[in-house]
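>> received
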Amino acid sequence: MISPLVGDDLGVCHNDDYRLVEWRGNGRIVFSYTQKGKAMSAHFAAEKSALRQVKPAINEFCAWIFEQYPHCRMILANVAVDSVVRLINKCGFEHVLTCDEGVILARSK
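>> returned
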């Protein structure tokens, strides 16, 4: 279940423009997100104990975003690690652009 952040942000990428929420299961996964037009830009960080649950947590987070923000048409992820790119592709994200900082992926509503 996605809920307001309680405790440590696990080092997830964010600044003052980002909101923070977390998913709890066997461990915690923290998500940061901010609006970019009709899209949300999002990042996540996971406790080691939650790594096997990242895929269902991402899927739940995406469903939550689209429910909470009906104007949102897509979720963007900027990823620098190849294994995370493969994981996020399995969550319905598609390649948009490759840049110096990594790969940008999007999941549409």
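>> Residues 31 and 44 are 4 Å apart (CA to CA).
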